[in-house]
Amino acid sequence: MNHALDAVFKPSSIAVVGASRQQGTIGWEIVHNLLAYGFQGAVFPVNPRAKWVHSLRCYSSIREIPDPVDLAVITVPKELVLDVVEDCGQKGVKGLIVITAGFKETGKEGLAREQKVVEIVERYGMRMVGPNCMGAINTDPAVRMNATFARVQPLSGKVGFMSQSGALGEVILDYAKELGLGISTFVSVGNKANISGNDLLEYWEEDQKTEIILLYLENFGNPRKFTGIARRISRKMPIIVVKAGRTTPGARAASSHTGSLAGLDVAADALLSQCGVMRVTSIDELFDLAKALSLQPPPSGNRVVILTNAGGPAILTTDACVNLGLTMAELSGETKASLRTFLAPEASVENPVDMIASAGPQEYQKAVEVLLDDPSVDALIAIFVPPIITDPRAVAYEVAEASKKYEKTVLGCFMGTKETLGGLQQTGYPIPLYPFPEASAKALSAMVRYGRWLKRPQGTIPTYSVDREKAQAILMKAVERGGGALEPEEAMEVMAAYGIAVASWKVVFSEKELQDCVGEMGFPVVLKVRSRKILHKSDLGLVIPNIADLDALKEAFASLSQKGRSAGWNLPEEGLFVQEFVKEGTETIVGMATDPGFGPLLMVGLGGIFVEILKDVSFRVHPVTDLDAREMLEELKAGPILKGARGETPVDLEYLAECILRVSQLVSDFHEIGSLDINPLKCSTKEKTRAVDVRILVGKEN
Ligand code: ADP
Ligand code: MG
């Protein structure tokens, strides 16, 4: 065994603790499935009240089994699980599948029980699937393990499938079988108390039999880890996720600009696609896509040609393709001429190529070859509406055979009864067949996106030389005092430690100190209240910019004192924040907010006090690469403003990208940071760019 999870997925011997003689119980079904599916190793039923189960000798305890046991499948009542797990540890069992429910999912008491189980599992170095799950299947002919109580015996294939819901897992297995989609490993992960979704992804990454990953998820577990792992693995194999419900960022308390903008604008699918993960919203779509990716290569571009024997469905398919961002391929004169040589005179040789109802298998075969020969075609959708005289099987066969000679993507839209289609698909044609135009277009567009992802250079995550110790000292001090917002000057120092220049500043606690310090700094200055509580200072008139002389300073001080007092600010305790006035530069925002589903998100946009109104921002999942940072800037509508509209100094975009990357590095270094806003970062040239307002929150929001 090479991998720690092999004990669970490739055992040589399995004990079923809680095996039962009574048909219909879980303890009976599991033993039955192991035998019926033809497990290649030994099966030992364990039940103190039975002598034989399924004609196998039954043991009263796992410790009584004379042979070694790799995996124990546990179905005993929840009160007995702890003792059984302990016995397994003593017996030297390496893998566990705990089917039994009644743990974390039931509340406090269950959670405590689950923690005890995990403690024993870890003490003995075992690995555990569950608890509260439906089991696991490995279809590898060398293993053939169906350690579930599902009624389905799945087909063997290349799909690794993880389900967070046991019941839905069974339905999906059933459906997969009907569609002829083969599974390599199926895991119902249950409460994920020991083996997590991330562990499984890493297992499949190494597994020779798995080429596609399907996930049915309710949550991402450790999102920081998920996004990192997914980004790596999706370059090797497609990952398709059905995630019930978007993240609910709207419900999250946002005490930063970035947080409130993330709550409004960031779609979970956009973030997933950044990690190369394809998100679908229905089980239908999951299979449409899985079928396509398991049978066909992703296209190298988005130019599609549609081949049909009927006009109506071709129009629907064209509309669907165009709406999904695909391009209708421009066929070459040569292609059209060659189609003309064998198609009926009424046929249309423009894209969509309509061969009319008289077209039979031979026409399909020739047309597919001619079209795939055209260099302006990346993908082909063959539509077939069965006229009585033509056999859909023969057409599907010819399309599939013709497509084999090319590296291009071919999908079929074979309309008609589900029976015909299901029958066709199960016989293992190498092209995916769909009953409706929209489904084929959707699958193709997802494949195009995946193809783009594969080609996209990965970019690098640079490491800048920074003063990590300094930032650490400040942040740890904040952790010690229980988290919350940093003082403005602390936040400024953290920024400066990570190489983002800040406007020079002083903190003062009286009017006298203020005048002395401005004497040193020189005019013009900006006066602000120093406060950890007030999020939008200028909304309350608590920021006074561009103070040019002593008179203006006195006036500003009076005004600020008065407004500050009514906002609950206290001069001798909280003080004033005096800053050099940074005249030049476009106001941008660079920030980070933690999404409960995805972990930290980085944001850049047009900044200043109107950021929430303009909402011209772009997001990426942390950590970002140099390429991501540049793309984030390209996505902004404010592009022309940044490039220096109306005589402003153009923003050094390379440097702004560097600032995003420096923030990304800071976020990588300190998981304690819950959110961060630099708003505004006054951007012009690299030398003159300054952060003038920085807010850093330590710990979770609120
Ligand atoms: P808040 O975001 O809490 O309202 P800021 O410190 O960001 O407070 O100040 C609000 C606005 O005042 C900024 O968006 C910027 O336009 C201006 N401003 C603040 N500090 C400076 C500064 N040092 N130099 C130039 N302009 C500043
Ligand atoms: Mg601000």
Give a quick account of the main beta sheet: strands, pairing sense, barrel closure: 7 strands, mixed
What fraction of the residues are assigned to beta strands by DSSP? 15-25%
Number of helices: 25
Which class do the helix and strand fractions yield?
A: alpha/beta
What is the name of the CATH architecture of the largest domain?
3-Layer(aba) Sandwich
Ligand species: adenosine-5'-diphosphate, magnesium ion
Low-pLDDT runs: 246-253
* Overall mean confidence score, pLDDT: 91
CATH topology group of the largest domain: Rossmann fold
The CATH class of the largest domain is: Alpha Beta
Count of spatially separate domains: 4
Tally the beta strands: 31
Biggest sheet: strand arrangement:
9-8-11-10-12-13-14
The H-level CATH homologous superfamily of the largest domain, spelled out, is: NAD(P)-binding Rossmann-like Domain
Oligomer: single chain
Radius of gyration: 31 Å
- The helix content is 25-40%
Measure the end-to-end span: 47 Å
Question: Which geometry do the CA atoms define?
Answer: flat
